[in-house]
């Protein structure tokens, strides 16, 4: 695909991807979004529709049986799915998060083992960095991995693992050298059927209820030695480089939810009449709509500029990728809140998707690093 853009100028192929995903999202994902939320159930309909169309993990290179799409196309998929159902957008988003470390640092052997499963859609992947006491301070993790002959043996508990239980492969970060700080952490590809691997109960969350979030328990979990991703001691850097590439994906998710909320609010204010006129004719409402659309467009530009830089593997991605995630998620929280406001009492009910969107999008200010951590990452780059 044409990547000759400085900020973002989408090619015809990118626009075609957007049109194709939008059609699938509206026909096969949107009708189930409320039920998925209401019953906190995994969106199987979305997984089936995305997999059938090849949009479940577009980022996997063709050589591993994937779609071979660039990062911009992948984020268009995430944005368009999030526009109707944020839980469902975590299927392509987390497949990328769970495999990015392999793509960046994995040996040919481990890539050939894991990526075809994700590319074909028979399996999904998750990313296991955080622990209960190692969230923002990710390097403080306690999970250990010790070499034992031809195996690695992992012990510990990882927390907040998105799509845990529905994923088959997990990129797990664990300490291999406790005296080396962040440079004593390594990354591993762990399979759900590995002995000593167990998934905990689902967290009871405010939103993204269709995407299970669980702990994973590693109890003498034994995996072949060649399942290490990169050299021992490089796992923390692989984890942070992964986040450089996937934080714009969270930005795309936030832009998608915000766009979905604006579209619903626009339709409502044209139709809803008060004081004898449609409420969209009132200037106070118009100012809100204009601000919402302006903020979405600004965030979209930043997200796609960061995504394009990631696709080009430019140096120093940390600032722009943290900025895209932070700006877009703060924007989306504001825009979804304003959209609820524009519908008044109706916006506060489950008769409309806006209260769900407002709950769902809150997590974009928290996961893949809180927006406070994003600001820390940005400030460190500025002060270097
Ligand atoms: N890419 C590659 N390497 C990076 C990097 C990046 N973006 N950022 C930092 N590094 C390197 C550093 O250069 C350092 O290497 P050296 O020791 O060789 O110099 C190493 O990684 C450790 O970096 P640092 O000292 O900055 O680590 P900290 O422990 O201070 O942690 C933060 C930095 C807080 C930014 C990091 O822990 C973080 O992002 N936390 C949030 C985690 C998160 O997003 N969790 C959500 C999980 S997904 S739901």
Can you walk through the features of this model?
With 384 residues, the protein is of the alpha+beta class. The protein folds into 3 domains: 109 residues, Acyl-CoA dehydrogenase/oxidase, N-terminal domain (Butyryl-Coa Dehydrogenase, subunit A, domain 1); 109 residues, Butyryl-CoA Dehydrogenase, subunit A, domain 2; 148 residues, Butyryl-CoA Dehydrogenase, subunit A, domain 3 (Up-down Bundle). The chain is 51% helix and 15% strand. The chain is built from 10 helices and 10 strands. The strands form 3 sheets. The protein has a 4-stranded mixed sheet with strand order 1-4-5-8. Strands 2-3-7-6 form a 4-stranded antiparallel sheet, with no helix packed on it. Helix 4 runs antiparallel to helix 5. The relative contact order is 0.12. The N terminus is likely disordered. The structure holds coenzyme a persulfide. Coenzyme a persulfide (COS) binds next to helix 6 and helix 10.
Query: CATH superfamily of the largest domain, called what?
Result: Butyryl-CoA Dehydrogenase, subunit A, domain 3
- Helix and strand pattern: HHHHHEEEEEEEEHEEHHHH
What can be said about the biggest beta sheet?
Answer: 4 strands, mixed
The share of residues in helices is 40-55%
Would you identify the CATH architecture of the largest domain?
A: Up-down Bundle
CATH class term of the largest domain = Mainly Alpha
Structural class: alpha+beta
Bound molecule types: coenzyme a persulfide
Helix count? Answer: 10
CA gyration radius, whole angstroms: 21 Å
Distance between the amino and carboxyl termini: 35 Å
Regions with little confidence, pLDDT below 50 for 5+ residues: 1-6
Number of individual domains: 3
How are the strands ordered across the major sheet?
1-4-5-8
Which band does the percent of strand residues land in? 15-25%
Mean pLDDT: 97
């Amino acid at each position: 695909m044409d990547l000759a853009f400085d900020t973002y100028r989408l090619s015809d192929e990118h626009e075609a991807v957007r049109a194709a995903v939008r059609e699938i999202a509206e026909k096969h994902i949107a009708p189930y979004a409320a039920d998925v939320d209401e019953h906190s159930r995994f969106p199987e309909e979305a997984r089936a529709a995305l997999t059938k169309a090849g949009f479940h993990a577009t980022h996997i290179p063709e050589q591993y049986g994937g779609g071979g799409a660039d990062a911009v196309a992948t984020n268009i998929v995430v944005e368009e799915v999030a526009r109707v159902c944020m839980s469902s957008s975590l299927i392509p988003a987390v497949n990328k998060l769970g495999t990015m470390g392999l793509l960046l640092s994995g040996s040919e052997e481990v890539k050939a083992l894991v990526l075809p499963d994700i590319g074909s859609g028979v399996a999904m992947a998750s990313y296991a960095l955080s622990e209960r006491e190692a969230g923002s301070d990710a390097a403080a993790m306690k999970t250990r991995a010790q070499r034992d002959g031809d195996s690695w043996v992992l012990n510990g508990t990882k927390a907040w693992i998105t799509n845990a239980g529905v994923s088959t492969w997990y990129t797990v970060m664990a300490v291999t050298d406790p005296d080396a700080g962040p440079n004593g952490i390594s990354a591993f590809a762990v399979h759900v059927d590995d002995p000593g691997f167990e998934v905990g109960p689902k967290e009871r969350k405010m939103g993204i209820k269709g995407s299970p979030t669980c702990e994973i328990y590693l109890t003498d979990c034994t995996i072949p030695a060649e399942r290490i991703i990169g050299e021992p001691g490089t796992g923390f850097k692989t984890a942070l480089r992964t986040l450089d590439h996937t934080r714009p994906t969270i930005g795309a998710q936030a832009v998608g939810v915000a766009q979905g909320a604006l579209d619903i609010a626009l339709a409502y204010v044209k139709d809803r009449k008060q004081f004898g006129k449609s409420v969209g004719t009132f200037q106070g409402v118009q100012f809100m709509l204009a601000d919402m659309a302006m903020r979405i467009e600004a965030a979209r530009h930043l997200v796609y500029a960061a995504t394009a830089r990631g696709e080009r593997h430019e140096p120093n991605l940390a600032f722009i990728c943290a900025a895209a995630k932070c700006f877009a998620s703060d924007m989306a929280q504001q825009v979804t809140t304003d959209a609820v406001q524009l519908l008044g009492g109706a916006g506060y009910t489950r008769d409309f998707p806006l209260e769900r969107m407002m709950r769902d999008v809150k997590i974009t200010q928290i996961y893949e690093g809180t927006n406070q951590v994003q600001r820390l990452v940005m400030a460190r780059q500025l002060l270097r």
